[in-house]
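Hello forum,

I keep getting stuck at the same step: I have a sequence, I want structure tokens, and every attempt I make locally crashes halfway through. Rather than fight my setup again tonight, could one of you with a working pipeline run this one for me? It's a single chain of 110 residues.
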Amino acid sequence: IPLFVVLSDVPLLVHPGKMVLVALLGNLGLASVGTLTSALVAGIRRHGSLAALVALPLVIPVVLAAAEASRLLVEGGSGTAWWRWVQLLGGFALIFTVAGTVLFEFVVEE
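Reply #2:
Ran it on my machine without issues. Output:
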């Protein structure tokens, strides 16, 4: 990322705290969705392609929200539109983290 910023002259660090917030919520959302879906399909024999098919529709809102929030920050707009995308990221991360915690013992059986 630092090399990309230098070579493309994109002002990513105009709002560093807000950019870190978007990155953390996006990473948490991706990790929680990936963990939950891989645990769901772990018991199936051909789980490689099924995991991707199950995870992709769930990951698209996280990627879209993170990209849009980052775009708004780079363009200098950190108003209500940016805050709505961050709320979507936070809600998504919260829902799937809580769902993974609650459903862990039902999904993973030894």
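The two ends are 41 Å apart (CA to CA). If your local run keeps crashing, start a new thread with the error log.
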